[in-house]
């Protein structure tokens, strides 16, 4: 991820423990979060990868299995339903129209680093396909920093007519990461390859299996386009840290998006509106960590989240090279926890959040290659 985004302005990527997991921030979003992700919406071909509760996992992403990346900073991500401060990152997949029939890749490096990929894409009449298989291993510079990840990414498209296409997506991920932990300054200066003793004694790790399916139907006509995109994902997480987390996640939802680029009374116009619905159910189990094995149970909760996001945006060129931008979002979010453990009291609760976010901006095309823009906007992130 660092290699992909390091030179993108306003984007900061810091790998964690030399692993694929990283801290990702756009213009300061989620800057205090040193694990997982918050403040940025991750998308694959405009379909959410992020969880409904706002978090995300970089191990669900395979950099070699994408054609290119779009970074929408801040309120520029409104047109994809993102409400987050940082904006959105949209990973665009190869298809059988632009991928090689057979491609192989092998990387090797220090500290037991080895990564291989085999991929194939082709067009067969009105159908096309792309599939990528990757495996990544690393012993690591530090003790207890081994990585072992296997991923399959695939999509299958069918062009029903010149105006109508359907594309199905599949992702399978099996990832295992040992966590060496933090060191004091003295420990680092003495031996930077060592792990935190507690991380070894507790066998601290982050392992999960992940499955995602999605479907995208696109119908285009007369400078207009409609996308309908349902999706579903399932993740089993085993995460021994200072306690053991055994969590099961299910996310599902759908994205409806309408785009119109017809001129408006002779003025260049781009209008987009849509609805993004996301829901998540999480079974959260926690245990005392006894050398990496389950001890006594400390928590048992069912957590549910959902977000209903309605949005619209208009870009209108009022005079040559000057475009006014106006947009809005209406967000309804729910966060619920049903405590099933009750050993330390009832920690159940339910909160609803509603917000309307405005956006106004201006875009000036100084030259064919230089643009100036500014936005005044408001973002909204439920906890």
Question: What is the CA-CA span between the terminal residues?
Answer: 25 Å
Which band does the percent of strand residues land in? over 45%
Shape field: globular
* Total helical elements: 3
CA-based gyration radius: 23 Å
> How many DSSP-defined strands?
19
The major beta sheet can be summarized as:
13 strands, antiparallel
- Enumerate the strands of the largest sheet in spatial order, edge to edge or round the barrel: 7-8-9-10-11-12-13-14-15-16-17-18-19
**Low-confidence runs (pLDDT<50, min 5 residues)?**
none
The H/E string reads: HEEEEEEEEEEEHHEEEEEEEE
User: Mean pLDDT, as a whole number?
Assistant: 93
Structural class estimated from helices and strands: mainly beta
Name the helicity range.
under 10%
SSE layout and pairing:
Blueprint lengths: L1 H4 L5 E5 L6 E5 L13 E5 L2 E2 L19 E6 L13 E6 L10 E7 L3 E12 L2 E12 L8 E15 L2 E15 L6 H6 L6 H5 L3 E17 L2 E17 L2 E18 L8 E22 L2 E27 L2 E18 L9 E19 L2 E8 L6
Parallel strand pairs: 3-6
Antiparallel strand pairs: 1-2, 3-4, 5-6, 7-8, 8-9, 9-10, 10-11, 11-12, 12-13, 13-14, 14-15, 15-16, 16-17, 17-18, 18-19
Describe this structure in words.
With 383 residues, this protein is mostly beta strands. The chain contains 3 helices and 19 strands. The strands form 3 sheets. A 13-stranded antiparallel beta sheet has the order 7-8-9-10-11-12-13-14-15-16-17-18-19, with no helix packed on it. A 4-stranded mixed beta sheet has the order 4-3-6-5, with no helix packed on it. The protein is globular, with a radius of gyration of 23 Å. The two termini are 25 Å apart. The mean pLDDT is 93.
């Amino acid at each position: 991820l660092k290699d992909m985004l390091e030179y993108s302005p306003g984007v900061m990527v810091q790998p964690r423990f030399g692993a694929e997991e990283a801290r990702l921030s756009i213009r300061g979003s989620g800057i205090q979060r040193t694990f997982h992700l918050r403040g940025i919406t991750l998308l694959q071909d405009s379909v959410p990868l992020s969880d409904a509760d706002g978090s995300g996992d970089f191990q669900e992403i395979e950099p070699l299995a994408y054609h290119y990346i779009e970074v929408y900073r801040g309120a520029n991500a409104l047109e994809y339903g993102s409400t987050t401060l940082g904006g959105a990152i949209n990973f665009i997949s190869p298809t059988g129209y632009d991928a090689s029939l057979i491609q192989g890749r092998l990387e090797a490096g220090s500290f037991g680093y080895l990564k291989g990929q085999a991929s194939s894409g082709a067009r067969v009449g009105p159908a096309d396909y792309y599939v990528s298989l990757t495996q990544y291993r690393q012993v690591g510079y530090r003790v207890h920093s081994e990585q072992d990840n296997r991923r399959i990414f695939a999509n299958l498209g069918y062009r029903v007519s010149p105006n109508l296409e359907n594309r199905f997506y599949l992702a399978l991920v099996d990832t295992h990461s040992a966590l060496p932990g933090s060191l004091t300054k003295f420990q680092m200066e003495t031996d930077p390859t060592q792990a935190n003793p507690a991380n070894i004694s507790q066998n601290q790790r982050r392992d999960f299996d992940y499955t995602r399916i999605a479907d995208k139907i696109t119908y285009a006509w007369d400078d207009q386009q409609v996308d309908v995109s349902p999706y579903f994902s399932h993740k089993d997480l085993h995460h021994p840290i200072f306690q053991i987390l055994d969590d099961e996640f299910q996310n599902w939802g759908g994205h409806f998006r309408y785009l119109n680029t017809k001129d408006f009374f002779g003025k260049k116009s781009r209008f987009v509106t849509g609805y993004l619905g996301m829901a998540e159910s999480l079974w959260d189990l926690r245990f005392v960590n006894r050398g990496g094995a389950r001890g006594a149970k400390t928590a048992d909760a069912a957590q549910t989240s959902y977000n209903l996001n309605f949005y619209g945006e208009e870009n209108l060129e009022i005079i040559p090279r000057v475009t006014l931008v106006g947009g809005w979002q209406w967000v309804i979010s729910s966060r619920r926890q049903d405590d099933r453990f009750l050993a330390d009291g009832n920690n159940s609760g339910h909160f609803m959040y509603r917000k309307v976010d405005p956006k106004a901006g201006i875009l000036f095309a100084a030259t064919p290659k230089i643009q100036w823009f500014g936005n005044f906007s408001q973002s909204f992130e439920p906890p």
